[in-house]
Amino acid sequence: MYFPYMGKTPTLELNNNGSYEGFSSCNSFFGKYTVDGKNINFESPTSSSKLCHEVMIIEKTVFSALRNINNYIITNKQLLLKRDDEYVEYVEI
Question: CB of 45 within 8 A of CB of 31?
């Protein structure tokens, strides 16, 4: 996701061991994910606890997107995260 607010860009890194980590524009976060075929599930993230009023809506959006993702496709070296048939986000890989 890209939010051009105050130069804060959320990140998401999927590790081969089933864990993920990222930056939500204020706090860092991490958690576990599982993959079964083309289905993917992200456990609720654990995050640091800095309070950044000006970007909290971005953080809420990032965490909400993680909770809603349930499948993916890879096309042209891009990971497309989806909720059913709707694209949630893409990430260059």
Answer: yes
* Three-class SS state of 64: helix
Q: List the chain domain ranges.
A: 11-87
- CA 36 to centroid of chain Cα atoms: 18
pTM: 0.75
- Evaluate if residue 88 carries a pLDDT over 90: no
- Per-residue pLDDT tens digits for 7-58: 667 888 999 999 999 988 888 999 999 999 999 999 988 988 887 777 777 7
Residues 6+ apart with CB under 8 A from 84: 70, 71
11-87 fold: Lipocalin (2.40.128)
Q: What tokens does 82 get?
A: 């989806």
d(CA 3, CA 28): 16
